[in-house]
Every structure is written in C-alpha cells, then in structure tokens.
Amino acid sequence: MAPQPKNCRIKCVSKIMDESYNRLIQSDSKSLLKKYLSQDVYNALKEEQTPTYGSTLMDCIQSGLMNLDSGVGIYAPDPEAYTVFSPIFDAIIEDYHLGFSPNHTHPPLDWGDLTAFQNLDPENRYIISTRVRCGRSIEGYPFNPCMTEVHYKEIEQKMTDVFRGLSSELPGTYRPLTKMMRCEQERLIEDHYLFKEGDRFLKAAKACQFWPVGRGIFMNKDKTFLTWVNEEDHLRMISMEPGGDLGNVYRRMILGVTAIQEQVNFARSDRFGFLTFCPTNLGTTIRASVHIKLPKLSSDKDKMKSVAEEHHLQVRGTRGEHTESEEGIYDISNKRRLGLTEFEALKEMQDGILKLITIENSL
Ligand code: ARG
C-alpha cells in the first residue's frame, strides 16, 4: 500500500484524534495509553508517520481511544511504528514488561534445558489444562492494519504448504475460516482451540479487515499442536493438552516452531526480539498458561491477584483476556515476555504456578 501524502491524511484524522484524546484524558480509563500519553508526548507524535506504510499515531492508538476499558490500548500498525512512535511505545513497554527500559536489549532465543520443567500438578487436583503459545510475524509483511487482501492470501497459501510438510507428531489439517461451517467454528471456539471472532479491541485497531479471508487454524491429529493464521499476528503457534505437564507442552511447541521456522523467515528486531502487532507480546512472545481451579485462594480475588502479581503472573477469566471466570476456572500465565529468554519466561511461570498451588494447599 503506497503511503498517502503526509499532510492530507494527518489533517483528516487530527480533529477526530484530538477529540478522542481529550475524552481519554478526561476519562477514568486505567489503560497504559492514558497513563503515558501525556499532552507533550501526544503533541510531539501527532504529525509523525512511518516511512514505508505511512502509519500515523491514530493508527497506533485508535483501539485505546475507542475502548476506554483497554488494559494497554496501543498496537503497532507496522514494524517501523515501534521506532517512529518510540516515546509512547517505550513507556508502555517498560511498564508492561516490568522494567524493560530503552537501554535494554532483548536476549537471543534460548529455549533452555527442558528437563527443568515438570508436571505442575501430578495428582490432577488443580490444573485442567496447560497451554504454551508464541506469536510470529513473517518478514517482509506489515501488521494487520496495513495488510492488503493479497497479503492475507499469500501468507495463508505459504502456510498451507508449510503445514503439509510437517512430520512426527505434528501432521494435521489446515482449516480456512472461509470454508468452515458456522457451527464447527463455534464448537472450536467453545473448546478453546480457535480464536474468537469480532474482538472489539482488534476491530478498532483495523486488524480485522477482509475477515475471514486468509484466516484459519491448523490442527495436528491430536489437537495438541495448533497454528492460528492471520488472527492478531501472522502466526500464533500453540501447544496444549489436558493436565499440568508443562514440560511436555513446551517440548511440543518448540518442535512445531522449529519445524515451521525452517521454511519461514520470522521478523526479529535487535532490540525487541520477535516482532508482534501488540507490544505486550514482543520478545519471546511466549504466553505459558494453565486453566486452574484454586477454590480457596480465589474466594478472595484481590488476594489471588496480588499473589499472582508478586510472581509476575497475570490472571484472566476462563476464555482469556476480557472475560470472567466460569465455574471457578482461571487462566493464569506469565506476564512479561520481553527482556528475558524463552527459558526464563517458562521458569517464571512454573515457579509462580507452583507457589500458587502451595498457597492453596496451606489455606
Ligand atoms: N488492546 C487490548 C487492551 O489493551 C489487548 C491488549 C493485550 N492483548 C492482546 N491480545 N494483544 O486491553
């Protein structure tokens, strides 16, 4: 997509952006966008544009402006946005990733020693299932808001070929959304395999254009290794299974990612590691989570949240972010993914979950 002439595009959106920005600062929004987008930062960035795709500040922040209940409120429309709009991205990144400041650099990929990971709940008392995912962007493509219909189709075609070449425990089927029956799609969402449709945060960020073109899910035969194509990121590679065997789930994700990366070049920055659409996912991009029931600890939600926070964990509802807990089941995962290795992110999650279980047992 050719960038539009700078002044024309900026002028059209600037009035709307000013109004929405004023609404944000007057609101009681708890978003990191509100916390860090001071008038000075806003003024300094409001006329900037990324060189290749012409993305503006509005393209970065429109989701947070429209959704005042955002936790974060910003996305990078293309990889250059992280640099051009660094005053706002850097501040949000440092807060979210617990201290990754502008003079930090993300370490090189290190999956680490797998024997350090165990079954977190060998007696099956608390953990219902375990999931580890990572996100990847494909080199040479922008992120969702700048993608054309052709980009979506190209990525999907490329991935269909890649999936066909998988071996050992990975082979399976790619299912494009365009050819999926509604009831089947709903079923896969219900069973926590597939992404939900119509996420208002992504929609407001213009991340759902041409939907459902180019979107789909690959599942291996056992439905323990999945890849989401062109949802929030170009790729989300997921390993999951019932129970608490974190070591096995992590091992399988590494197997899948390694096989895929032999055939696809992933976008990586020297400073931020693997690049993703949302700054919360930069770096390792790893979110290792359990679906867990902690009846005693969760009877005091504030306590559960504060213990989790102490261990750098994030508590979400049963269906992930922006959802409530159902039947006392929580989705708990590592919060930071940037500034530490893959191994350290997993270890942080393992240590935290073991601690939560110890506390539950002591109550
Ligand atoms: N933009 C949303 C918010 O600020 C989601 C942020 C993190 N989640 C994500 N899927 N990227 O609440």
Query: What compounds sit in this structure?
Result: arginine
Q: Which percent bin holds the helix content? A: 25-40%
Q: Strand order within the widest sheet?
A: 2-3-4-5-1-8-10-9
User: H/E element string?
Assistant: HHHHHHEHEHHEEEHEEEHEEH
Rg, Cα atoms, Å: 20 Å
What overall form do the CA principal axes indicate?
A: globular
The CATH homology group name of the largest domain: Glutamine synthetase/guanido kinase, catalytic domain
Terminal residue distance: 58 Å
Largest sheet report: 8 strands, antiparallel
Strand content: 5-15%
Mean pLDDT score: 95
**Structural class by SSE content:** alpha+beta
Q: Quote the CATH topology of the largest domain.
A: Creatine Kinase, Chain A, domain 2
Uncertain spans: none
CATH architecture of the largest domain: 2-Layer Sandwich
Please report the number of helical segments. Answer: 12
Please characterize this protein's 3D structure.
By secondary structure, the chain is an alpha+beta fold. The protein has two domains: 6-96, Transferase Creatine Kinase, Chain A, domain 1 (Orthogonal Bundle), CATH 1.10.135; 114-362, Glutamine synthetase/guanido kinase, catalytic domain (Creatine Kinase, Chain A, domain 2), CATH 3.30.590. 37% of the residues lie in helices and 15% in strands. The chain has twelve helices and ten strands. It has an eight-stranded antiparallel sheet. Strand 3 and strand 4 (225-229) form a beta hairpin. Helix 1 runs parallel beside helix 4. The chain is globular, with a radius of gyration of 20 Å. The N and C termini lie far apart (58 Å). The relative contact order is 0.15. The mean pLDDT is 95. The structure holds arginine. Arginine (ARG) binds at residues 63, 70-73, 201, 232, 278, 280, 321.
